[in-house]
Amino acid sequence: MSTKIRAILYRKWEKTDKRGTITVKVKGRDYFDLLWYLQQGVQPNLSCIEGVKNLKDLKEKLLSMVSRIDSQSIRLDLEALVANADFVNNLSRNMKAILEREIAEKL
Where do the domains of the chain lie? Predict the structure, then answer.
């Protein structure tokens, strides 16, 4: 879980189309995996996450990152990994709210 959190906090990643327009701003799978860890009740090892002082600090940083995600980025990254298009569309539209709730309740 800690390595996934580090990826969310520090990975610089974009995907562009043939014209150079940014189409995906985040790796949707990182947020998908974080959601899975949270729903399993896994707690992160804070000593493995640089720049995080305590659990409260981690929550604030994750919530800040989650506030920036967009549904298109989530959808475009996950549609290659998940066969059920309706599930991907629904999850991508609701990922921000779901993660905000899970982070607040589980961390």
Answer: 2-106
